[in-house]
């Protein structure tokens, strides 16, 4: 068994978000064949546990590795291809699924090495396999967190970074929102009867600062739909988007901006006609909470030591505006686990050009192994 074989096997198991059952069954089989105990969790998620080996009980730490089984689309019938240089791509019509199967394959490879006694000294290890990470409702929040007893966690899910020793130190909070703009439709020849939802939308949007609205913060409206016919003033327009920030204050400010824009439009007499009023409903949903690591914490320094031991100069610290399962573990109300989101060695993820390399898969294995044995 080698890492590229496991990787190429599992990227061929379709597992777009919400359809992870086959992937979960493959992992369950893989664990059963190696006598690794695991529990099945909600939404096909799994928690596997391997007790420490050849460590004095005082030295044995409890560590978690976590990866998500799901992929974005187009992720069906993926055909992986390895060229002479070791670059791994899909056939070009689908994603590769290296996000997050580069990490998933490496977790399975590590488990196999332990099961076959190729690795004989390691800490207590928990392997958590999650689903629906790529969509608005990540299943990690449905895990029974009491079952996870690790003191520190590692998630290799940061893509597009050249340095393998990259760690996310600050992650933004992300909130999704929808805006339902309701006016009143009327025939194109009778503007006096219409409360034009499009005009309401234009005024609403012009009150907002889209894009990089505040320092380390963004606001985007990514979906616009509405209107009924070419000869009708639109009665309804729906918008959907998200906003992100490293700072809780700016998250609140952006929320306030949306509400102020709503009030401004609703106060405009232009959108009140013949005793009827236009309306705007805003619904804001927290997608994930941000976090910041203490780069002087015991665990952070221990992680840095692992990378240094492997020949890296230090850890490359970055901040990110994209979410990962790490937010759930970092922010959990009763069972928070200091969890690091690390480079997965993958590039152009979420596109049909997604790629990784055999070399990066091997580097990832070496990093995971060093953590499992020496953290
Ligand atoms: Zn991912």
Quick description:
The protein is of the alpha+beta class and 375 residues long. It has eight helices and 21 strands. The protein folds into two domains: 254 residues, 3-Layer(aba) Sandwich (Aminopeptidase), CATH 3.40.630.10; 116 residues, Alpha-Beta Plaits, CATH 3.30.70.
Give a written overview of the molecule.
This protein has about 375 residues and is an alpha+beta fold. The protein has 2 domains: about 5-170 and about 290-375, Zn peptidases (Aminopeptidase); about 175-290, 2-Layer Sandwich (Alpha-Beta Plaits), CATH 3.30.70.360. Helices cover about 30% and strands about 30% of the residues. The chain contains 8 helices and 21 strands. The strands form 6 sheets. A 6-stranded mixed sheet has the order 1-2-6-3-7-20. A 5-stranded antiparallel sheet has the order 11-12-14-9-17. Helix 1 (about 5-10) packs across helix 3, helix 3 (about 100-115) crosses helix 8 (about 360-375) and helix 4 (about 195-205) runs antiparallel to helix 5 (about 250-265). The longest helix has 19 residues, at about 250-265. The mean pLDDT is about 95. The structure holds zinc ion. The site of zinc ion has 5 residues, from helix 3.
The amount of beta strand, in percent, is: 25-35%
Full CATH superfamily name of the largest domain: Zn peptidases
- List how many beta strands DSSP finds: 21
Fold-level CATH name of the largest domain: Aminopeptidase
What CATH architecture label of the largest domain applies?
3-Layer(aba) Sandwich
**Bound heterogens, unique:** zinc ion
* Envelope shape: elongated
Note the run of SSEs as H and E. Answer: HHEEEEEHEEEEEHEEEEHEEEEHEHEEH
Average pLDDT, all residues: 96
SS summary, helix count: 8
């Amino acid at each position: 068994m080698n890492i590229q074989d496991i990787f190429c096997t599992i990227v061929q198991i379709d597992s777009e978000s919400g359809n992870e059952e086959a992937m979960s069954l493959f992992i369950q089989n893989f664990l059963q064949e190696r006598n690794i105990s695991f529990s099945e969790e909600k939404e096909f998620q799994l928690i596997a546990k391997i007790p420490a080996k050849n460590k004095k009980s005082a030295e044995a730490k409890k560590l978690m590795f976590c990866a998500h089984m799901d992929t974005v689309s187009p992720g069906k019938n993926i055909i992986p291809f390895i060229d002479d240089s070791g670059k791994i791509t899909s056939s070009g019509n689908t994603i590769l699924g290296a996000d997050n199967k580069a990490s998933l394959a490496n977790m399975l490879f590590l488990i196999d090495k332990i099961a076959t006694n190729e690795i004989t000294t390691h800490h207590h290890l928990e392997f958590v396999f999650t689903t629906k990470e790529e969509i608005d409702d990540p299943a990690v929040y449905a895990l029974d967190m009491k079952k996870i007893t690790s003191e520190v966690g590692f998630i290799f899910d940061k893509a597009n970074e050249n340095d393998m020793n990259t760690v996310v130190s600050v992650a933004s909070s992300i909130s999704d929102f929808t805006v339902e703009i309701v006016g009143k439709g009327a025939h194109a020849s009778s503007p006096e009867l219409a409360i034009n939802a499009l005009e309401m939308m234009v005024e609403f949007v012009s009150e907002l600062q889209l894009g990089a609205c505040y320092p380390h913060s963004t606001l985007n409206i990514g979906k616009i739909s509405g209107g009924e016919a070419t000869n009708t003033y639109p009665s309804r327009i729906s918008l959907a988007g998200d906003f992100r920030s490293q700072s809780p204050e700016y998250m609140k400010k952006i929320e306030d901006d949306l509400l102020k824009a709503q009030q401004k439009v609703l106060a405009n007499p232009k959108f009140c006609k013949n005793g009827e009023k236009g309306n705007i409903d805003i619904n804001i949903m927290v997608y994930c909470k941000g976090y910041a690591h203490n780069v002087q914490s015991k665990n952070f320094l221990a992680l840095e030591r692992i990378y240094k031991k492997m020949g890296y100069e230090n850890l490359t610290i970055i901040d990110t505006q994209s979410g990962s399962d790490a937010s759930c573990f970092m922010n959990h109300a009763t069972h928070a686990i200091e969890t690091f989101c690390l480079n997965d060695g993958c590039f152009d993820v979420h596109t049909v050009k997604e790629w990784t390399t055999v070399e990066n898969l091997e580097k990832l294995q070496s990093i995971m192994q060093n953590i499992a044995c020496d953290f």
